[in-house]
Predict the 3D structure of the following.
Amino acid sequence: MTRNASWSAIRRLGALGLALVIASGAPAGLQAQGLDAIQAQIAAQIPTADRMIGKPALRHGALQALGALYANNADSPLWSHEGSVTPQALALLLEIQNAESYGLRPKDYAASDLGHLADQARQGGPGHEQRLAHFDLYLTVAALEFVSDLHFGRVSPEAAGFQLPEAREPFDLKQALLGIAGAPDMPGAMAAVEPVFYHYKLLKEALGRYRHLAQEGPYLPLPAPPRTLKPGDAYAGSGTLRHRLEVMGDVPAGTAGAEGVFDAQLSAGVKNYQLRHGLTPDGSLGKATLAALAVPLAQRIRQITLTLERWRWLPPFKTPPIIVNIPQFRLFAFRSTEDRAADILQMNVIVGRTFTRTQTPVFEGDMRYVVLRPYWDVPTSITRNELLPKIRAHASYLDKERLEIVNGQGDNSPVVAPTPENLGLLAAGRLRLRQQPGEDNALGLAKFVFPNSYNVYLHSTPAHQLFREPVRAFSHGCIRVADPVALAELVLKNAPGDWTREKIQSVMNGNQTSVRINLTRPIQVLILYATALATEAGPVLFFNDIYGYDRRLEQQLGLPPVH
C-alpha cells in the first residue's frame, strides 16, 4: 500500500490495512507542522463544532466535554501528532465505519465524511493545518456522540414511556475520549464504554452472525403445505426447510435426510425453532411456524439492535435484581449481580393483556415485603366494570366467589352487608371489594410487593393451566408467577423468621390470613421489554412485539421499515 492510500482503501482492508498504513509512517507531504497554527484553527472552529456531524445538540454532557477536551490542553489536537494523523484516529474511524456491528448506524456519525476528511488531513500542502484541525474536531464530535450512544443509548427510556432507573454510575465523557485517543486496543477501548452485561455481549456477537447470514442473500420461500405437517408427511419444501434450519442452528449441519419428506429430523429442528420463537413446541409445521420462518433476517437483526439499545438504558446491578421480560413471559431472579444463567432462578410468568389499559408497564421498583395467603383487593375499575353488574344480577355471587365489601383500607376493616346503599357506595369508590385468602384467590397464595404508582406486583394464581400457553398475556397488568414457593424462598432468604421452603409452604397452605413478611433489604425489580435474547448455549431467542414497543422505538430512532 502506498503512503497516500485513501481511507476507503484502508476501510476495505480493515485491520490489515490499518496496520500497513501505520507501519508505513506519515504519508507523502505530511511534515511536522507548527502546533501553534493547528491550535489556532481548532480554537477558531470550536464555537460551531457541535453541529459538524449534522445531528441535534450533543447529549449527556457531550457539549461540555467537547469544550473541556480542548480547553484543558491549550486547544492541542487529539488525533494528530507532529502533523500526522495518529493510529488511534484511524482505528477509531474503523469502529465508527463499522457502527452496524454495535447495532448503530455509521451515517449517524457522518462516517463517510470522516473518511474523506481523514484522507485530506493526511495530505500536505497549503491549508494543511486547517484540514488537520477540522478533521480533529469533526472526529471528536463524532466520537463523543458515538461513545455517548454506546454507553447511554440513543433514546432515553423516559422518551420511550418507560420508568427505569435514572441514577447511573458517574461517566466522564471527556476522560473516556482521552483514554480512547491514547488506546493501544481500540475495540477494547470501545468495550469499556459499553454495558457491562454478559448477555449484552452475547447479543452483540449474535448480531454479527445474523448480519453475516443476511449478506448471503434472502431465504428461498418455503411452500405452504395444504395442512399442518407431521413427521413422515410428504413435503416438497423439505430441502429448503432443512437448509433454513441448518443455517439457523436448529438442525445439525451436514446431516442427510429423506428428500421430499417432513421427516423426524426436520420435526426435531422445527421444535427447536419453535422453542426459540415462543411458539407451541409440537414439532409440527403449521401456519404459525411457517409465518415465523418467513420473517426476513433483516427483521431479526432489527429486533437485536432494538434490544441492544434497551440494554444500554440499564446501569450495572449493585444488588441481585429480579427481572421480568414482558414479551418473553419470563422472570429471572438473580442470586448474584452477574447475569449468568447458573446464578439465576427462572420461571414462566403471565403478563397484562395487549389492550392499552391492561398492559404491564415497563418500570423499576423496590420489593419490600411478601404477603402469604393475601386478600385480593379488587381494583376499582374491575369492581365497577366487571363485578358489580354480576353482584347486582345474582345475590349469591359474593358468597360464591368469596368476595367481601369492606369499609376501610386495612386488612382489619369491617365487612358490610351488600345492601343497595352499600353497592352504590361501592360503585362510588367509598367502599372496597376484596376476595378472601385461599387457593381460589385471584392472587393465589403469595403476593410480592414493590410499591409503585401502577399498583402492579408479582403474585401466584389459581389458573395454573395458563402457564402451558406459549403466549401468556392474560392479566389486568399484574404479573403472575409459575413457582411462587421457589420465588418466596429466594426473596425471603435473609428475612427474619427463618423462612425455609417447608415453612413457606406450611403458611401458604394453613389457616392464617394475610401474613406479611418484610424484607431485610429491598430487592430491585425491573419490568423490561426485549424481543431478542442471546443465550449462553448459543441459540438466539425471539419474541413477538406484543405491545408494539419495538415499532415505537423504531420511529423514535428514525429507522426505516424493514422489508
Q: What stands out?
A: The two ends are 39 Å apart (CA to CA). The chain has 20 helices and 19 strands.
